[in-house]
Amino acid sequence: MELINQKKELRQRILAERAKLSPEEHRRRSAEFCRSLFAFDPLQECRVIMAFFPFRDELDIVPFLEAARERGQEIWLPLTVQKERRIVPYIYTGAADLKQGAYGICEPDPARAQEGNTRDLDAVLVPGVAFDRGGGRMGYGAGYYDRFLSSLSRRPLLIGCAFELQVVSRVPMEPHDIPLDFIATEAGVAVCGEKGR
């Protein structure tokens, strides 16, 4: 119960801080994030990248999605299947592929987009509420990403994506939580692990 309360308090605090960013600051920080992520060498070598479409005041990752597609990388976006509490990735070829889905998030339209084969996945850009330098991540509480990542037959590169204000000293972790390899913010991309804690 204590862990649940810790997560709830941290989630509320970080979301409130993120919501305080002015539109100008949000745009500036998002642009810096996209530039540093696009220049990140290990990601440049990936052929297939699963990303996400920004929701509410999440950082705007769309310029990265378009730039990565222009340099020949395949981008996937998740479709949320609420009844089964899971996400299914679809290949993203542009805004025409999208519809408003679960929670009001823009998601792939299965009538227009092709489902991705997860065996081809080289990297996953993981959204969330709070992150730490040790690879810890706290999402929005539904567990979609933990279930998706644990279902993969091989581990892709896992990169947490957030504003620097979402990085905290320690995220409360549970045994099923999957640690990330890197964390990307407007300040750059940093390796996660024990050295980061």
Automatic annotation (TrEMBL):
Substrate binds at residue 58. PANTHER family: 5-FORMYLTETRAHYDROFOLATE CYCLO-LIGASE (PTHR23407:SF1), ATPASE INHIBITOR/5-FORMYLTETRAHYDROFOLATE CYCLO-LIGASE (PTHR23407). Its EC number is 6.3.3.2. InterPro entries: FTHF_cligase, FTHF_cligase-like_sf, NagB/RpiA_transferase-like. Belongs to the 5-formyltetrahydrofolate cyclo-ligase family. It catalyses: (6S)-5-formyl-5,6,7,8-tetrahydrofolate + ATP = (6R)-5,10-methenyltetrahydrofolate + ADP + phosphate. This is 5-formyltetrahydrofolate cyclo-ligase. ATP binds at residues 7-11, 137-145. Keywords: ATP-binding, Ligase, Magnesium, Metal-binding, Nucleotide-binding. GO terms for biological process: folic acid-containing compound biosynthetic process; tetrahydrofolate interconversion. It holds the Pfam family 5-FTHF_cyc-lig. It is an enzyme of class 6 (ligase). GO terms for molecular function: 5-formyltetrahydrofolate cyclo-ligase activity; ATP binding; metal ion binding.
